Amino acid sequence: MSIDSIKHKKKRAHIPSKEEAGYEQASEKVNQGQETLKLPKNPVVHRGQDPELFWKDKYENDDQDESLELDIRSLYRHEHVAPEKLIASLYKVVEDKNAQPNLFSMNDLFGNALEHDELEKVSEYYQHSDGWTNRLIQGDSLLVMASLLEREGMAGQVQTIYMDPPYGIKYGSNWQMKLNDRNVKDGSDEHLTGEPEQVKAFRDTWELGIHSYLSYLRDRLLVAKELLTDSGSVFVQISDENVHLVRNVMDEVFGSGNFVSLIPFLKISGLTSNLIETTCDYLIWYAKNIQVVKYNQMFFLKNPTKNGIGEYKNFEDSKGIRGKLSSAEIQNPALISKEYKLYRPSATTSQGWTKTGSNLFQYRGRDFSSGNNRHWATSNKGLLRIDKANRLVKRDKSISYIRYIDDFPVVPISNVWTDTRWGFDASDKTYVVQTNIKVIQRCLLMTTDPGDLVLDPTCGSGTTAYVAEQWGRRWITTDTSRIALNIAKQRLMTATLPYYKLHDEKTKDIRQGFEYKTVPHVTLKAIANNAEIDTIHAKWQKQLEPMLAELNKQLKQNWQEWEVPREPEKKWAKKAQDLLANWWQLKQQRQQEIDASIAKNSDSETLYDQPFEDKKKLRVAGPFTVETLQSFEPINPENVEAEKQQDNSTFEERIFAHLKSAGVKNGIKNEQAIFIRVEHLADSYLHAEGFYQDASENEKKAYFHIGPKFGTVAKQAVNEAIKACRQRGDADWLIILGFSFESDISNQNVTMNIGTFEVTKVRMHDDLLQAGLLKKDKKAASFITIGEPDVKLHQQDKEAYVEIQGLDIYDPIKDIVKARNIEDIAYWMLDTNYDDSNFVVRQVFFCGGKKDEFKKWQKGLETLAKTKTKRKVERTLKIEIDEEAFDKLYGFKSHAFAVKPNQKIAVRVISQFGEESTKVIHIL
Fold first, then answer.
1. 171 — pLDDT class (breaks 50, 70, 90)
2. Neighbours of 723 (CB within 10 A)
3. Which of 919, 914, 924, 917 minimizes the C-alpha distance to 180?
4. pLDDT of 882 over the 90 cut
């Protein structure tokens, strides 16, 4: 048996990799395409008398700007991840003659996106289509969606959009601090994120409070609408604080006529309040076009033991004898006999008088009226047929139709969801911003089919992508936060999923859907129109009528069929008793045949949340790419200096003050450089110079490159700073200050004519970033050096393995580089055949902190690793666990791999704060 994933037979545009960034500017598609996307801010102009909501700066520029204009940027492939290849290193397949060989190469798995001719790459961007892979994208959702729409031509391709924007101005609903720390306290300085992208988004969203928030949401909905198919849906998750305003905004974007439903759903618990507690959040559901919206009805199973018996207080036993449940059985449905068929009397009439339908109907020797201003739900012929099916019961002044609980053993789900509450202690809730999986699952199952595309512009912990993956939907999700994206990536890499039987197992075309469980939907109308009942009834009457006549003769009775007793009297002759028993036996056989005809000729309902599962197969997430947005910095490089000049007092001067008071630390006690003085420089890439004392109390000089306030330090800028530092030739240290860095920027030792200088990345702490949010000034840890992973290749003959030996930290006081522990590493990945253009994740390892802290990342794999379930796993999956490989899963040594001359190995290390560092080793 091979571990597999779902492959989608759809296409996606071929886009450049991160290493190819900028090449696409020579593409004909890019040159001829629009530089900006322009959309009307109020697209629904024929809404009759619908009101319009106004807020501050809704139309900007004195409320005259009626169009939304967005720059069109490119998306770059940053990593290629195929979990089935990663998990393959953790087990050995037992020889199985029936097993199908896995013919997919890495290039096949990623839709042949990896191997393109170098000379043809530029012309193929956006013109060539690759096979589909799902997409995890870092970047502002507004710009990402605009790129998908304009650069990749994805208008009308998304079936469902699920948005979970921040509910309000609370830290916990906006970010998570570290990959392995899900605790965020609102209003706590210690729990403010240090990610500039997150703070920028947070500030922009709330600059004008709710006014900014409504513009933020309106803009994203405008672009999202263009991506939707005509049959598509959009769900916005929101609390009661702003639900009324958000619904108004959605009216303006989609039109009030396309409103589908407001769905309250229970959450973990009520919020503390002096007044009434809040126990639910809301989903606002709009269709792109409500006339053609895709909708799959969802159901709850009628479960008397769990949900109560409701109106089904009558029973029929295995002999066909009917009665009423006892009060004890009604109070405790577990006492009800399993042989009972529960039923309830149901109306046989409908409202309104009709000429043909309001007549009398004779039943068991008595005439019944349909009632005042009512008519029979079917014709007299249909009522007779229902009677032949033994589905009528006489009541005081009317007759009722017998509706068994199994006729329709489900209840359609309405727009009030009470089964979505987290457990009492929320033990299943793994992430700060995680929504109960059941909520998102229900939205996707209602509005999409397998193979459809789902978009979540608010990735968070990746729940939408996870749900979409489980249910065979394609997905795209995006977030500004590196931490959120890394959480989602780890979750998807380590997930194991149920294997649902495909409708088309031969070609494995997911678009044909799964094999689903179905339930009957028997109705009065279906029985009344079933002519086969007449035929069956007449056939059995040929035997039953003579027997009844003989029984009446022997007992000197004139019983009608419905008057025949169930049990004989003791004084009856044996012949009469036997005749009665045989008569009832034939009646039961006739009933069984009629019931079978009813089941055969009635409708059924599909349970879209209950596909058949093959427990002998194991499924993992399909291939996906991790992507980044072009020029991720919210501020363009050429505008950085202008911004610094405008914000000098609150940003640059603040940095200088902290350098002189707290200095630069390397994480080891008493090893820090305190700057005696710091002075501004009029240089494009060296922004300041500072002076500190070494161990001998000699004054030494350092230059500073200060990264953007709300952005990522670019490699190009660092290269220019190194050139400028080399030209000046009078410093021993170049400090690159930033809140985040491009992954291929590294600490290094640079040689100049008169010596060398160290280049060090230094993370600026959030206290410099969040003036106005912080309650107190935390100078103690304003600047921390970022260690470079010490990567060593151990090679023997034609095999090798990689080891992370530590973090190299520069000590400027002693002017040496020394190793530090590596607990700050969250996980690391390896591409053993790096081609300079595509980082393909071929091995992954989790580490840092205590091993137990990371068990949540291996939930899908831990079943395989546990010794107590090992035998069961090996028997069911026909695999042998590679214990040595599992031991390496949480550590710093890779699996062995083959090597050859001119091969390149790329190692990418991710810290607990989502920072990345990539090292490339070239085998000569």
1. very low
2. 13
3. 914
4. no
Burial class (CB in 10 A: 0-12, 13-18, 19+), 858: buried
d(CA 214, CA 247): 11
Helix (H) or strand (E) holding 479: strand 474-479
3 state DSSP class of 126 = coil
Query: 122 vs 877, which has greater pLDDT?
Result: 122
What is the distance between the alpha carbons of residues 178 and 194, in angstroms, rounded to a whole number?
10
- What is the pairing mode between strands 624-629 and 134-138? parallel
The pLDDT tens digits of the residues spanning 365-392 come to 899 999 999 999 999 999 999 999 999 9
Residue 785 is predicted with a pLDDT of 81
Share of the chain above pLDDT 70, in %: 80
**482 vs 484: CA distance, rounded Å:** 5
User: DSSP per residue over 718-745, as a string?
Assistant: HHHHHHHHHHH---SEEEEEES-B-TT-
pLDDT at 175 (0 to 100): 43
* CB-side neighbour CA atoms (13 Å) of 87: 31
What mean pLDDT comes out for the span 587-605? 95
Instruction: Give the up-direction half-sphere exposure of residue 883: CA atoms within 13 A in the CB hemisphere.
Output: 3
**How far is the C-alpha of 386 from the C-alpha of 141, rounded, in Å?**
58
d(CA 469, CA 444): 11
Amino acid (1-letter code) at residue 713: V
pLDDT number for residue 172: 43
Q: What would the mean pLDDT of 385-410 be, rounded to a whole number? A: 93
pLDDT, tens digit, 9 for 90 and up, residues 446-475? 999 999 999 999 888 899 999 999 999 999
| SS3 label, residue 558 | coil
Q: Are strands 453-456 and 158-163 parallel, antiparallel or unpaired?
A: parallel
Task: Sort 273 into a burial class: Cβ within 10 Å, 0-12 / 13-18 / 19+.
Answer: exposed
- The region, left, alpha or beta by phi > 0 then psi within -120 to 50, assigned to residue 805 is alpha
User: In which residue are the tokens 């190995």 written?
Assistant: 905
3-state SS track over 811-852: ECCCCEEEEECCCCEEEEEEECCCCCCCCEECEEEECCCCHH
Euclidean distance between the first and final Cα of the chain, in Å?
38
Q: Which residues pair with 879 in a beta bridge?
A: 93
pLDDT at 738 over 80: yes
Which tokens sit at 176?
Answer: 């998570």
Q: What is the longest distance spanned by two Cα atoms in the chain? A: 129
The pLDDT of 66-70, averaged and rounded, is 87
Tell how far CA 97 is from the center of its chain.
37
pLDDT of residue 417 exceeding 90, the answer is: yes
- The residue whose two tokens read 């930290």 is 809
In the numeric block, the tokens 């992430």 are attached to 431
Q: State yes or no: pLDDT of 300 exceeds 80.
A: yes
Bridge partners of residue 629, in order along the sequence: 75
Q: How far is Cα of residue 687 from the mean position of the Cα atoms in its chain? A: 43
pLDDT at 390: 96
Give the closest residue to 710 by CA, choosing from 754, 666, 668, 771: 771
Write down the H helix ranges in 647-771: 652-661, 715-728
Q: Which two tokens stand for residue 389?
A: 């099916």
> How many CA atoms within 13 Å lie on the side-chain side of 209?
4
Give the chain's radius of gyration (CA, Å).
35
> Which position has the token pair 């793994």?
430
Task: Burial-class residue 149 by CB neighbours within 10 Å (0-12, 13-18, 19+).
Answer: buried
Rounded Cα–Cα distance for residues 895 and 127 (Å)? 38
Hey, what are 653's tokens? Answer: 């001067």
Residues 403-429 have a mean pLDDT of 78
More confident residue, 276 or 641: 276
Q: In the prediction, which pLDDT does 452 show?
A: 97
- The residues, any chain, with a CB within 8 Å of residue 680's CB and separated by 6 or more, are 652, 656, 687, 688
- Residue 920's CB is within 10 A of a number of other CB atoms, namely 16
